[in-house]
Amino acid sequence: MTKHHEPFIFSIYARDKKGLIGELMVYFNRKNFPLKGINVARTDLSDLVLITIEACLPVPELLPFSHRL
To answer: How confident is the model at residue 1, as a pLDDT?
Structure first.
């Protein structure tokens, strides 16, 4: 039985640091969730960035997965 994947958009505010995107991608790659797009933007606060990720996940895994992020 295969799980049906739905597209979801995650918006994450995080402190800007080297390797941040790699740390986030580990969560998606570990579960083999396909990414549709990723964007990183600076905010008005110098040490914060806004990361927007569009990915496909099975609906039942959305809440547990988003809590780990």
So the answer is: 34
* Confidence band for 15, pLDDT divided at 50, 70 and 90: very high
CATH of residue 19: 3.30.70.260
In terms of DSSP bridges, do strands 5-15 and 35-42 run parallel, antiparallel, or are they unpaired? unpaired
Interior angle at CA 14, CA 25 and CA 46, nearest 5:
130
Q: Domains in the chain: how many in total?
A: 1
Model pLDDT, residue 26 = 94
Q: Which residues contact 52 (CB under 8 A, 6 or more apart)?
A: 9, 10, 11, 12, 37, 38, 39, 40, 41
